[in-house]
Amino acid sequence: MTLEEFKQKAKTDHDWAPGWDAIDSVFDALYPGQEPAHFANDFTSRAMFGGNEYLDGYSIYTSDHGYKHLVTYGMTELYANEEAFGGEYNGWGYEMTIKLAETDVERCMWAINVLANLARYTYQNKRYLEPYEFIANQGNSICANRPSAITALLTVSDTEASGVDTIYGRTDFIQLVGITELELAALKNNRDLAMTLVERMKQENPYLVTDLNRTKSYL
Q: S-S: 54 plus which of 13, 119, 148, 164, CB 3.0-4.6 Å?
């Protein structure tokens, strides 16, 4: 698409959201025919309108492999924005995902709070995520209202959602994976163990699903 074609499309289609469509195209391919549970932030709560929310919303898909797959909308440019056209990376270059060992959407809502906090941190501190970084939570469960040995998060490239090239640049998908305090301590001591941890986890958990009931440590 040329810039002139972009301008014409944006002028005639006021609901056009090419960045949003790009995300949907990836997840529609993973979950054909599925209508996800979608949660949108109120306009007045969004940062562009003076609020404290930096994401427009979240979708939750149900995998045939027995977990919920969450994805964010808002780390990348979602709507028609001429200034973003033709970039190398779309916004921060990624949307966040997490896979949860849950069957009930309501039991996934804590993860939406986590994703919102990480988005807020990124936008306010200009500190974006890359694969094989870890995020600590002071030894506490990553779910505020459920005790768990999962006390931190590790970032990886989503095991299923492939990145996509958009008119705004590249959009990848960074998956958050819950890890134990023992695993976190090992990573703090030697960051190079992140890939080892992922490979060991994948032997039993190939999609790197976060299970708050997990107590086993792989490092």
A: 119
